[in-house]
Amino acid sequence: MSGLYIHLPFCRRKCLYCGFMSLDVYDEALIGRYFDALLADLAHTGKTAFDTMYIGGGTPSAVPAGLLDKFLESLFRSVSIAGEFTVEANPESLSADFLKAIKTHGTNRLSMGCQSTDDDVLRLLGRLHDRRAVFSAYDLTRKHLPDADINLDLIFDIPQAPPEAARRSMEEICALKPEHISAYSYSFDTGYLSEKGEVTDSMFLEVKYFLGSRGYAKYEISNFSQKGHESGHNINYWELGDFTGIGASAWSLQNHPDKRIHRGKTKDVNIYLAEPSSYDEISVTEQADLVKEAVVFGLRMTEGVDITALSAFYNLRDFELEEKISRLCGEGLLEWKKGKIALTEKGELLGDSVSEFLW
């Protein structure tokens, strides 16, 4: 399986907590030049067929719809997408023109950054939308993309926000009946709202059980879906399938029999515009670490890692994995499921520590 990721870094305003590469800019000339660079970048890869495509940001819905439509028209002259085609959007910038543009070019999945339906929480996060915008944007999407899957993002443990606000947000988001919900723990990486609030673990479990009771099965650490509506593009990431990333800060991964190559683009838009086909960072996972990487990423998936399949290609004893897996099972952090190892509920709460120990 192969995926294409396209990064559009443009936002109306960067959110206070956001750690992704984005720009507070609304310059149509710059956006037009950036789209030209993306097309040159993709042409340089020589790839024309992908299983999935994901346009993220930034805020793709903040880009003028006419420019986005023109870019997608040019893109699909040379590229074909076999399956899932996702575009990100935010409630405050999602418009009928934007939806018409992406529908014209075959978008069948939209991911919306709601984060909360509580106005006080949204102000705390520095979001540009309010709760009414969440519901109106959702209804508008259903109107213009009636056959598309919709994902709604939720942050469930925001510092200084009461747990009741997250509970109400979950209830209201589930009432909309999106096909997919991504529920994230707040990231402290940016330093914003650095004082931790109430215990995250209990809320993590509450989210899992609440969404499960509403028909959303947990298939990855932070992702829940109705049956058959999992994100194929994201699963490809976690299964370490090939993917191509174009745009400033985008990453690509290419598998080889004896190694895995990761390539990253510059985060500087001006440098990217000048040299869109160049890479700022390249790292190689050699054969000795291939199996470890497969296990660590695979454990993000609820169904776990197929150890039997890995054993057919690697001697796990060479990587000290058998002993480590046995120890983690003994500590109640891993469990066996039909030939696969998976995180237990306790292990999910300590997922980073489990990964560090296995590596």
Can you describe this structure in just a few lines?
By secondary structure, the protein is an alpha/beta fold.
* Widest sheet: strand ordering: 11-12-10-9-8-7-5-1-13
CATH topology of the largest domain: pyruvate-formate lyase- activating enzyme
Low-confidence regions: none
User: For this structure, what is the CATH homologous superfamily of the largest domain?
Assistant: tm_1862 like domain
Just give the CATH class of the largest domain: Alpha Beta
Q: What's the story with the biggest beta sheet? A: 9 strands, mixed
What share of the residues does DSSP label as strand, in percent?
15-25%
Portion in helices: 25-40%
Mean pLDDT: 91
Query: What is the domain total for the residues?
Result: 2
Structural class: alpha/beta
Question: Helix count, per DSSP?
Answer: 14
| Total beta-strand segments | 19
CATH architecture of the largest domain: Alpha-Beta Horseshoe
End-to-end gap: 26 Å
Radius of gyration: 21 Å
Mass-distribution shape: globular
GO cellular component, one term: cytoplasm
Family: Belongs to the anaerobic coproporphyrinogen-III oxidase family. HemW subfamily.
Pfam families: HemN_C (PF06969), Radical_SAM (PF04055)
GO molecular function: 4 iron, 4 sulfur cluster binding; coproporphyrinogen oxidase activity; metal ion binding
